Amino acid sequence: QVQLVESGGGLVQAGGSLRLSCVVSGGVFEAYTTGWFRQAPGEEREFVAARSRSGINTDYEDSVKGRFTISTDNAKNTVYLQMNSLKPEDTATYFCAADPNYGSVRLGVPKWWGQGAQVTVSS
What we know:
Layout: E1 3-7, E2 10-13, E3 18-25, E4 33-39, E5 46-51, E6 58-60, E7 68-73, E8 78-83, E9 92-99, H1 102-106, E10 112-113, E11 117-122
Parallel strand pairs: 2-11
Antiparallel strand pairs: 1-3, 3-8, 4-5, 4-9, 5-6, 7-8, 9-10, 9-11
């Protein structure tokens, strides 16, 4: 049973930074594409970032390009989302995701999801 557990959310002022972490257990971390999504109140879940298992391919939603970075630490079975220059519109619950297939993550239909971490950016 693959499980994903996020941490690192919180409250930050606009312009600040946060780093989300997601530990993936119960599977072969190196075999997975990983990604991050977010969902604001009353909105649909949207794609934020994805990273292929090799790290060769990464993709970002346009509004976070240049501000957010997805990375992994295979020794810790962990995927990170470094978020800089945060804006109030980044406020959402952030979910990590994993799947052996890059397309499944990129299209928002991964096999596994985390439980979510709240990020609130005050103006």
